[in-house]
Amino acid sequence: MGEFPLLLAPMEDVSDPPFRAVCKQNGADLMYTEFISSEGLIRDAAKSTQKLDIFEYERPIGIQIFGSDIDVMKEATEIATEAKPDLIDINYGCPVKAVACKGAGAALLQDIPKMVKMTEEIVKSTHLPVTVKTRLGWDNNSKFIVEVARRLQDIGIQALSIHGRTRVQMYKGEADWTLIGEVANDPKIHIPIFGNGDVSSARKAAEMKSRYGVQGVMIGRATIGNPWIFREIKHFLETGNELEPPTISERISTCRFHFEEGIKWKGERQGVFEMRRHYANYFKSIPNFKPFRTQLVSLDQSDDIRGVFEELEEKLTLELV
User: Fold this and answer.
1) Which domains occur in the chain, in start order?
2) Catalytic residue from among 23, 94, 101, 255
3) Do the beta carbons of residue 144 and residue 112 sit within 8 Å?
């Protein structure tokens, strides 16, 4: 994966196979599925089992699971292992109420002994490497991430990704990388520590590497509509220079590729519908895009959308020459 891996964060309704294909093309070193409900897996729920789909070109790739019941998580781990990912990742970081209020995700930060026990049982339930994604703590009074990292390392996890906020913060305010740096530089920690939170540019990633000593960065929201961030970071780390931003033609071709992959994976109806959330991000700050976006989010037929892409390329390219 290189000496400073760039990871695509697992994001619900975003990091599906079509989006991962785009990120892989642009240099993502390690990617994860959307997080998958352990309860959904053991019930064979369609929404959960579909998320197990992984493809050879995506490797290395991890399947991320979440849940509150240790036995259910063990069983889900066995199911996920059968899908043959390269690793299993445990979500102890999701802050949303639907997850945390059911005792899963970031809720485990309120019960460190249970988190450790759950992780230990998952490690025993698979031959694959197990990694963890979590946060600094539940709130400002419970930032126990250094202790958590040591305990999880001791029971066998192979890497730890840390988001620099507490659960109470959700995604507000700035991510605090100070504690991430403490973990990364702890002499008792020997596993890779990946920092996550507000990595929004190549310069920011380089700063996090040099200032906090993390072994890699995980990027989430900044990749949406901007998969080029991976190659931009790599270029900056190698040369110290910023890469030219993608041309309008490349934005269109990448968006179109994402769209076609979605149709292939989800079928026409769902592929068309789910792509609607991405258009504004792909063409952010592009003048005169609004009328095209209106069409793209209202059309139901893939051939009609392909026609808009052609018109978009022709008109916007001419305007920006």
Assistant:
1) 6-239 (3.20.20.70), 248-320 (1.10.1200.80)
2) 94
3) yes
